[in-house]
């Protein structure tokens, strides 16, 4: 009997196990079918979507998730969302637990990239569907604000309500047009309590306001529970999509919401406002005291946040508030980094423009003075031989005048007002010719090494000016290595497939020839890198540098159509990189240089008639005497109008016009063009302290003319005139 009973029980248990197993299989099939159906449903959703198991492992990604995050199969959702949220694990666990209890939940979150909404739905008993919706492009003052549970409105400067979200319409009971229909105690004071009129009677709220474009303001309301003294609502404060901080009367930080933490980063406990910001121009504690006293209420200040990872500028507005009988402050923060960058660029542009104008004016006046000094010095030296006791003094005057002219030339190079003589050149040949001089410059302690791209493309530049750039960079590299070391000059072809943006400059895509000058020196501190190309700024000790070497290099490179950048590490060395436009090789040689350079004029007298036009009397006197000493007949005019009156006499035949470019009234090119209509075969020599954009691409505006830059010597003037007449 007992055996039969046991057999019956065993059979029953076997049947029950089979039923349970079949039920499990059926449940698994239903779960799999449900997951498959949901996967098919969300596959084409524009928002990234994932399904996960209870441990958070990803079991499916739709197309949008694959495109944004790549394949994440076998990984946890927390690992996939690390690039969106700082620490997603705790948040995901909290939302999954809430979805398991309620079936679904969602949160609106602020990230570094903007606002996002993360929602989760439970799938069956052991799965979850996650959806990440980007809300960055939704205007908070429009339809996007309808999704915010916080009451808000947008108002004009005159108090007209332009928009109310659904949450505020439910509280007020209707759509109203002006602020005075809602707020009983105008004007509004952000951070303080205000009463609003509702169908159920007055309701007290804390106000937050953020100014928008066109005088519009977004106003957010934090309703206070009825019958309670106004106090801070941590949940609403945290979720508010405006960066806010609550401060004590002493400036101590009491609370920081999520949006503010995204701007400021990690904030130490018990931190004060003065610990977070700098750049006010006076102690931050004084500003806080003024705001608490009501003397600086709602006056914004742009401050630099003390963040080690990056430079952030914030516009900070302090508003006084009274909470539970205590005076405090609410700080409203908005990112002003881009505005500050644009301001810095504008200031730099204005400074460079002022320096350029100064350089042009200095060059014009100084070069006239130097021409007169060096010219009359040359005249005196003609009357003294080298054994004369006065000859050494005259030679010193001449050398120092040339040094002064070189300094003016460096200023012109930076301001990009010098006259260039661009030609197609091969950098390998140029650097090879320069190697001997560079080795002498660097001395015995420094090793100079050159490395070239074997297929280096040619460039179009002024060879003499480009040599000046290389010499300046090499000399700086040498000075950065007082104990010796190695300087490397490298060249290569670079093709940019897209625009290169760095150091506030944009290098257009295309073919470039890159030159690098690399040293192993002391390096340049990061805070000084942005100033090294400014005139008269130097990192060398007093008396060791003029501060014009790099500014000269900058001006020459920019005038050539190129770019120059610097990368440096303190105690490791610096690398200056030049981007110069590449050119195709030309089968035919380009025309010869426009500036005069030729053999010295023979001493025998020559017969020719010159019309000399120069508004500076000392320069005109020197030039006239120099030409007469060589046997020329010289007619003088102090301006273009006088020159044209002289030319009205048709009996006078002129072999050459020597004229200044910039003069009061009609300039040199204008009167010469007029004169050549009647005298087309006359040679033309232009002289000037700077060309001021008269000479395009280094070529004078009148055919078959040449340009002689001031200051010029006696021999340079007479040689140029003679070479032009003999053409």
TrEMBL record:
Catalytic reaction equation(s): ATP + protein L-histidine = ADP + protein N-phospho-L-histidine
EC number annotated for this UniProt entry: 2.7.13.3
Domain Response regulatory: 609-725
InterPro entries named among the record's database cross-references: CheY-like_superfamily (IPR011006), HATPase_C_sf (IPR036890), HATPase_dom (IPR003594), His_kinase_dom (IPR005467), HisK_dim/P_dom (IPR003661), HisK_dim/P_sf (IPR036097), PAS (IPR000014), PAS-like_dom_sf (IPR035965)
Superkingdom of origin organism: Bacteria
Enzyme class, spelled out: transferase
Keywords: ATP-binding, Kinase, Nucleotide-binding, Phosphoprotein, Transferase, Two-component regulatory system
Gene3D superfamilies: 1.10.287.130, 3.40.50.2300, Histidine kinase-like ATPase, C-terminal domain, PAS domain
Domain Histidine kinase: 361-584
Sample GO molecular function, one term: ATP binding
Modified residues (4-aspartylphosphate): 660
Name this protein carries in UniProt: histidine kinase
Organism: Paenirhodobacter huangdaonensis
Lineage summary: Bacteria, Pseudomonadati, Pseudomonadota, Alphaproteobacteria, Rhodobacterales
């Amino acid at each position: 009997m007992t055996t039969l009973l046991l057999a019956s029980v065993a059979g029953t248990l076997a049947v029950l196990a089979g039923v349970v197993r079949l039920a499990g299989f059926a449940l698994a099939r239903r779960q799999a079918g449900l997951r498959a159906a949901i996967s098919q449903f969300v596959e084409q959703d524009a928002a990234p979507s994932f399904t996960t198991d209870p441990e958070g492992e990803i079991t499916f990604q739709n197309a949008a998730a694959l495109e944004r995050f790549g394949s994440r199969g076998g990984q946890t959702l927390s690992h996939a969302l690390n690039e969106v949220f700082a620490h997603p694990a705790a948040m995901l666990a909290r939302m999954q637990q809430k979805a398991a209890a309620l079936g679904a939940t969602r949160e609106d979150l602020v990230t570094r990239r903007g606002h996002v909404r993360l929602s989760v739905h439970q799938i069956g008993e052991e799965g979850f569907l996650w959806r990440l919706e980007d809300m960055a492009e939704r205007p908070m003052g429009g339809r996007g604000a309808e999704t915010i549970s916080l009451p808000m409105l947008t108002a004009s400067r005159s108090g007209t309500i332009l928009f109310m979200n659904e949450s505020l319409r439910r509280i007020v009971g209707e759509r109203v047009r002006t602020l005075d229909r809602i707020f009983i105690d105008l004007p509004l004071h952000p951070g303080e309590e205000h009463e609003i009129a509702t169908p159920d009677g007055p309701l007290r709220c804390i106000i937050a306001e953020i100014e928008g474009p066109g005088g519009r303001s977004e106003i957010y309301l934090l309703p206070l529970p009825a019958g309670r003294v106004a106090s801070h609502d941590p949940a609403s404060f945290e979720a508010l999509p405006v960066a806010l901080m609550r401060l004590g009367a002493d400036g101590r930080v009491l609370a920081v919401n999520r949006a503010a933490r995204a701007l400021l980063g990690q904030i130490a406990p018990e931190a004060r406002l003065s610990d977070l910001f700098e750049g006010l121009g006076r102690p931050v504690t004084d500003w806080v005291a003024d705001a608490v006293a009501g003397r600086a209420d709602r006056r914004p200040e742009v401050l630099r946040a003390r963040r080690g990872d990056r430079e952030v500028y914030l516009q900070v507005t302090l508003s006084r508030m009274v909470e539970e009988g205590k005076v405090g402050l609410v700080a409203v923060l908005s990112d002003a980094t881009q505005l500050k960058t644009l301001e810095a660029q504008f200031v730099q542009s204005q400074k460079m423009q002022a320096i350029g104008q100064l350089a042009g004016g200095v060059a014009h006046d100084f070069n006239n003075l130097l021409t007169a000094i060096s010219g009359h010095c040359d005249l005196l030296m003609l009357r003294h031989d080298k054994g004369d006791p006065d000859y050494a003094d005259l030679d010193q005057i001449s050398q120092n005048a040339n040094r002064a002219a070189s300094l003016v030339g460096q200023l012109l190079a930076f301001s990009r007002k010098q006259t260039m003589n661009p030609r197609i050149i091969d950098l390998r040949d140029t650097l090879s010719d320069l190697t001997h001089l560079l080795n002498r410059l660097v001395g015995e302690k420094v090793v100079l090494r050159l490395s070239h791209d074997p297929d280096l493309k040619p460039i179009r530049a002024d060879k003499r000016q480009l040599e000046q750039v290389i010499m300046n960079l090499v000399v700086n590299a040498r000075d950065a290595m007082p104990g010796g070391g190695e300087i490397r000059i490298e060249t290569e072809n670079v093709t940019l497939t897209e625009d290169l943006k760095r150091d506030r400059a944009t290098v257009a895509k295309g073919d470039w020839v890159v030159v690098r000058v690399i040293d192993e020196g002391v390096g340049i501190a990061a805070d000084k890198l942005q100033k090294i190309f400014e005139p008269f700024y130097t990192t060398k000790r007093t008396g060791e540098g003029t501060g014009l070497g790099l500014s000269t290099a900058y001006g020459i490179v920019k005038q050539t159509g190129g770019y120059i950048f610097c990368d440096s590490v303190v105690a490791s060395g610096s690398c200056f990189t030049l981007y110069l436009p590449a050119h195709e090789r030309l089968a035919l040689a380009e025309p010869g240089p426009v500036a005069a350079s030729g053999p010295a004029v023979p001493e025998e007298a020559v017969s020719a008639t010159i019309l000399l036009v120069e508004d500076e009397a000392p320069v005109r006197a020197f030039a006239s005497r120099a030409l007469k000493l060589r046997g020329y007949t010289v007619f003088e005019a102090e301006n273009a109008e006088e020159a044209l009156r002289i030319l009205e006499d048709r009996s006078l035949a002129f072999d050459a016009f020597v004229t200044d470019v910039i003069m009061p009234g009609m300039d040199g090119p204008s009167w010469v063009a007029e004169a050549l209509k009647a005298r087309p075969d006359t040679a033309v020599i232009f002289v000037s302290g700077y060309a001021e954009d008269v000479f395009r691409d280094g070529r004078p505006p009148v055919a078959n003319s040449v340009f002689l830059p001031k200051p010029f010597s006696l021999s340079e003037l007479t040689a140029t005139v003679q070479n032009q007449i003999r053409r």
